[in-house]
Predict the structure of Branched-chain amino acid ABC transporter substrate-binding protein.
Amino acid sequence: MPIRISALAAAAACTAALSAQAAEPFKIAFIDPLSGPFVSTGELMRDHVQYAVDDVNAKGGLYNGDKLQLLQFDSKLSAQESQSALQAAIDQGARVVVTGGSGSSVVAALVQAASRYNQRNPGKEVLVLNHSSIDPDLTGRSCSFWHFMFDANTAMRMQAIANYIKTQPAIQKIYLLNQDYAHGKQWAHYGRDLVGKARPDIQFVGETLHPIGRVKDFAPYVAKIKEAGADSVITGNWGQDLALLLKSAADSGYNLRYFNHSAGGFPGTVTSISQTRIGQLTWVAEWHPGQADRPQADARARDYKARTGKDFLAPRMDLVPRMLAAAVAQARSTEPVKIAKALEDLQIDTIVGPVKMRGKDHQLLLPQVVNTIAPVDGKLVKTGWEGTNYGFRTDAVYTPQQVELPTECQMKRP
């Protein structure tokens, strides 16, 4: 009798262990700024990713019924802190890292750290899914099998802006004002290069780099722009650096045009423009709120608002967990190597239209919409944003093929 009881207990324990193992979630580590001057940006990114994770889970989870779980880590805008977070995430069982809001240098450091870890730990690899750091080198000369970019890179975004500026003869003199780090330098470089090719007649009348996140008053920079006689500024500034630039220009009465990569995708930008009431801020992204002929995006935005109480701004961030789940389903596996191979050349229909993950460099190809923050007029701008009478005016829509550029990637695969 004691032997029988022991056997039953062992069988029950084994069954419980198997059930616990089957119920183990697939862990994703979110590593982005959750403190400091860009905390609102990091929280926006986290909320978009968490919403998509919850939605995937509500619809049944992964192909095998496993659920996704999002672990959160603060990058503190530091490569060293992010690498420490990566190790902590791996220790907690994460197989995928979602990141992108700390700058391309941080993402590059994470990709390098993940690559080293994967080389040392075959069978326990980790993937890096990047939603917002758009350095072309990440899918170019420094491309990695372990990294995927879910946003149009800097050159592709600037190509969309260059295509638009080509149709705007009133733009004659451009100043390049950017943050002094990799992305700011590249936004300036591609601005001069691609806009210059599209409009050889345009004059670039000055160029300045400034410390990121440390300038409290942009008046001296605005004075230099005014002295140069610019009518437009190409700036990659974001967060408080963009808001303070807009304020200083408005305080001086300078009615500039600004060309930016993703300004309207950050909370508070529309409010800043509505308060200054002068200046035109044009930016580019895969979608903007209120964009015509995007009913699925409108529905997603309404559901996001209902669930979170916040505004839906970035479909690409929402797309990351969904495309991950699609790749897992195609691979019929949760092994990162198999997921990566399934992601390569994966094409899916999304709320912003068809997208494709280019297999040769892991660069997502998606539409680009050039739009300007402008007053509601009932025609081109029908809805105000952030409680203001300013919204988004569509200026031009470009297909993925119209902004696709070649890559220098020579990828090494496992």
